[in-house]
Amino acid sequence: MKIATFNINGVNRRLENLLAWLRTAKPDVVCLQELKATDGQFPRTAIEAAGYGAVWRGQSGWNGVAILARNGEPILTRAELPGDPSDTQGRYIEAAVNGILIASLYAPNGNPQPGPKFDYKLAWHDRLALHAAELLAAGVPVVLAGDYNIVPEPRDIYPTRSYDDNALIQPESRAAFRRLVDQGWLDALRSVHPDETLYTFWDYRRNRWPRDAGLRLDHILLNNKLTRRLSGAGVDRHIRGLDGASDHAPVWISLRDAAAAD
Question: Which residues form the Endonuclease/exonuclease/phosphatase domain (predicted)?
Fold first, then answer.
């Protein structure tokens, strides 16, 4: 089973890129972020024609998340992150696919910091940690995939001082990611590639893609029900270099069948 996460940075603007990647990569499950589309603007017809069922939480502006399932229909279990009924931002969706609970998340950027946006970022990650602990306690296979908007370690960003004040690398942000992982989640990409330089995002500005001036922002976390099934992981870097590309590249993992992992 192949599960991927992809911050598409505008699902309608990048639709042809997305469909071409689906045809070649053939992921079984895809978590999308930053749809930049309302519910009614989501390209359901084109997605279904490509062989994928979908659930989504649309929103104009910078948000919106979705889960796609190849040759099937995701079963929606949650369309918001619990813990703050006043939060209406479309940043979290959860669905069951082939016996696995899948979450697609688009965490807040948090800039500028300090300030209310950074406070919201940290509070959102606190809520995510609380919900993640509940998912762990449920004892079912779970994947938390998406754009966490956190660079976990200094090696996950190209050598630079230009991000020193950026919310993505602040100690509080990194501590939030560590607290989540320390609950018992496996950072799948880093687990498979413990020593490699790994980037998933390259800003459009300052020639960062040609310079390989990247950051690792997109992560797939697995609970202990899935760690033994992990057989591979990677970043489809070439997608970032295509015409009209998102500033993120897809991240994917592959899982063995449950019987083969026993």
Answer: 4-248
Q: What is the reported pTM?
A: 0.97
For residue 106, give its domain range: 2-261
Tens of pLDDT along 130-156? 999 999 999 999 999 999 999 999 999
Task: Compute, in degrees rounded to 10, the torsion defined by CA atoms 112, 116, 118, 123.
Answer: -170
Whether 147 and 105 have beta carbons less than 8 Å apart is answered as: yes
Q: What is the CATH number of the domain that holds 180?
A: 3.60.10.10
**Listed residue (231, 236, 232) closest to 218, CA to CA:** 236
Angle subtended by helix axes 171-182 and 116-138, to nearest 10: 10
203-250 tens-digit pLDDT: 999 999 999 999 999 999 999 999 999 999 999 999 999 999 999 999
Distance CA 101, CA 84 (A): 22
